[in-house]
C-alpha cells in the first residue's frame, strides 16, 4: 500500500535515460514489495505471536494497526522529506530504519514491544515509499518505458498483499512467526546495496518548509480516533471512549483550520474539496477498512475455528486476489462502456454481497460452500473498484498537486484500515461477550464475533457505493488525470 511523492520534472542532468534504469527499477520494485507485504505478512502469524507473547485479543489488532496508522499518517510528510532532503538519501535512511525496526520486532519479548516496533516500521515505510516512486518518475520521465515501469510497480503493489499472506503462512509454519519480520533483513540488504550502486540523488527545487504543526496535529488526531474506537470494546458510552473520540475530532478540526492559515500546507484543502476526488478518497478508506479489518478476522476464522495451518490459511486468502487479477481486464472494459460512476457503485455493492455471504459462517462449515463464494463476490467487487479508483484521485487536479493527491489516496487506504480494525474489534468483542453470555460454546462465540465484522464491512461498502453515486459526475474522459501525472496503483 505504497504512495508516491510530489509530481516532479526530471532534472536537467537526467534528461538522457540512465543506462542502469531497469536494474534500478528492480530495486525500487523490491522496496514497493516489502512495504506492501509488511501490511499483511504478520496477519497469518498473529495467532502464533499472540500465544507466544501472551497478548489479549484487544491488543493483537495493534500489531496491524500500528503499522498502517504510522504509514498512513506520515506519508505526506515522507513525500516532503524525500523532495526537500533528497530522494536517494531518504530512501537509504528509510531502508536502514525499516530494517532495524524489523529486527526489533522479530526479537520482541512482549506485545507492547512488538507493537512499538511495528509503528516504527510504518514510520520508515512512509519515507521509503514516496522516495522510491519519486526516483521512478526521474528515471522513467516519459514515453512507453514510463508506462512499462509504472505497470511493473502497480503489479507488485497489487500482488504484494497476497504474497505477504502466503509468505507469512510459510514462515510461521516451517520456521517461526518471528521470521515474518526478520525476513525483511534480506530485502533491506538488497535494497541498500542496489540503492547505493544504482540510484542517483535528486531533490525538488523551490519552497522547502515543513508543516510540522500540521503533521503532529493530524497524527495525534488519527491516533486518538483509532484508540477511541478501540476502547469502544469496553462500551461506547465509557468516558475514555468518548474522550478520545472527541479529542480526535477536535484535533482534526484544528488540523483543517491550520491548513488554511499557512503558505505551504501539508495537505492543500483544494485537493480534498473536489467532489470526485472526495469520493475516491472515501472509497479508498472503505477498501482499506475491509481488506485490513474484516479480512483479518477471516484469517482468524481459518486458523482458530476451521483449524487450517498457517500455510493453508494463506492459500485460502489468495482466492480473492486471484479473482481480482483474472477479472481486471473485464473491469477495464466495463469502465470504458459504463463510466466510473456506475462501476464505482456496482463494485461496492458486489463486494458488500460477498461480505454478507461470509457473515453466514458456522463453526463446522466448509470453506468451499461458506467462504469461497463470498471471496469470489468480494474479488469481483474489488476488481471494479481498483480499476478507476486511483485515477479518480487525480481527477481535475493541478499537476502541482498530483503527488499530494496520489499520496493521500494511499494514506486514505491505510488510515481507513486502521480505523476499520479498531471498529471491527469493538464489534467483535461485544458480540463475543454476548454470545458467551447466551450459553454458546467458545468456537460458536468466535464465529458469531467474526460474523458481525463481516456484516459491518458489508454496510461500510454500501455506504461507499452511496457516496460514489452522489459525488461522482462526468464522463470517463472528463475524469481522467492528465497524461503526465504520476499515478500509483
TrEMBL record:
SUPFAM superfamilies: MFS general substrate transporter (SSF103473). The keyword Membrane applies. Residues 24-476 form the Major facilitator superfamily (MFS) profile domain. GO terms for molecular function: transmembrane transporter activity. It is a multi-pass membrane protein. GO terms for cellular component: plasma membrane. It is found in: Cell membrane. Pfam families: MFS_1. The chain crosses the membrane at residues 22-49, 61-78, 90-107, 119-141, 148-175, 181-200, 212-230, 242-258, 278-298, 304-330, 342-361, 367-387, 408-429, 449-472. InterPro entries: MFS, MFS_dom, MFS_trans_sf, Sugar_transporter_CS. It comes from the Bacteria. Keywords: Cell membrane, Membrane, Transmembrane, Transmembrane helix, Transport. This is MFS transporter. It comes from Nocardioides faecalis.
